[in-house]
Amino acid sequence: MTLPERSRFANAGKAALFVSLHLNAEVRGKRQGYELYVLSLEAGEAGVRQSIASENQIIPEDHGEDVEKVLADLRMSGNFERSLSLAKALQASLKTKATASARPVQVGPFYVLYGAEMPSVLWEMGFLTHAAERRALSDPKVRQGWLEAAAEALAKAALSGRVPSP
Description:
Layout: H1 3-12, E1 18-24, E2 35-39, H2 46-56, H3 64-77, H4 79-94, E3 106-108, H5 111-114, E4 120-127, H6 131-137, H7 140-159
Helix pairs in contact: 4-7
């Protein structure tokens, strides 16, 4: 699915939560582990800006007024806070499963999150540019294990009551 199709699919299915799974990359190939992001116009650190530009598409500039309207709607409806709560719950659940420590939950203008009408998180599950993670991802059993760990972390977060209810 394309990035815009992902949020449209979640909206059409009236999903309560939206988690978009991605694999990360960076120029030096040294970073590893997972990262979680929620929607914001701010791009934060240089690494976040690089990730947006190279992998996930920034919200198009010609949508500026629409972006402001959506973000205002998000603030009014509480989706930003609920998205942040979801990301932090996932972060806490993943700490027991992660192969590398993660950075704190971050924000950015990620296009894949732009159209979501529900609490949403972009989850970078690992770095393809890190040699060990790339080798692991080439193994179908490891990929399946990572997806199972992702589903388990989401379920654990939901059962703990830390995932926001719709």
